[in-house]
């Protein structure tokens, strides 16, 4: 069974910032280059091996401004040895040409979403032409894509993409299931199992993240089914239920540490950065 040959270790990716949470509502959200770099280092210390980065401007708003993106990449490379993945999703308001241009900041990896999806009241645009262009641009530059899947049919798009274009940079195919977005697939074990069954043969590894309240159920399901993990304040700012109501997440490192603890309990301790680089087909 594809569920029984579970990897011996767990790649933990941290997504510390995202484009949706507001600094004035969540002051502990890392938004400045210094804060993101410090959070990256703290997360590496407790088990993360990759960081999925969204950049904010001086007013803490999402930006794809290239000098700012380069500044954050440099700061994270200085503070940590994490695999650096830049978001090409940006925010729902970002134009596609600017989303492509973040590749100029030379990350190790980039996110690549496989289809358009409703995103709360907004639309996250990823038409086929953009998917192909981003795939080719990343391959030409040796940047390893992480294929983001928000809904089951996007795995069919991945199959079509790989059948037509061949393998991405690095020669591996790593998928991340983003579950529980209002407009995408639900963050349930059923949906996760359906995705695992629908993965194209070329897929070599996959992770999952549950948005909001699906965070913990998806974490448990992914570990159980042989998947890796993404955690972070991009996806969850609520730690859990407390006696007096929801408890806020205090830091990304807390989320990584909890994920690492569960993974270790399930005999799949965190993968180190060298392991992550090998998994993704990045040079040692
Ligand atoms: N902020 C979302 C609209 C990605 O990073 O590639 C898109 C997103 C996916 O977060
Ligand atoms: Zn993102």
TrEMBL record:
<dbReference type="InterPro" id="IPR013785">
    <property type="entry name" value="Aldolase_TIM"/>
</dbReference>
<dbReference type="Pfam" id="PF05853">
    <property type="entry name" value="BKACE"/>
</dbReference>
<keyword id="KW-0479">Metal-binding</keyword>
<keyword id="KW-0808">Transferase</keyword>
<dbReference type="InterPro" id="IPR008567">
    <property type="entry name" value="BKACE"/>
</dbReference>
<keyword id="KW-0862">Zinc</keyword>
<protein>
    <submittedName>
        <fullName>3-keto-5-aminohexanoate cleavage protein</fullName>
    </submittedName>
</protein>
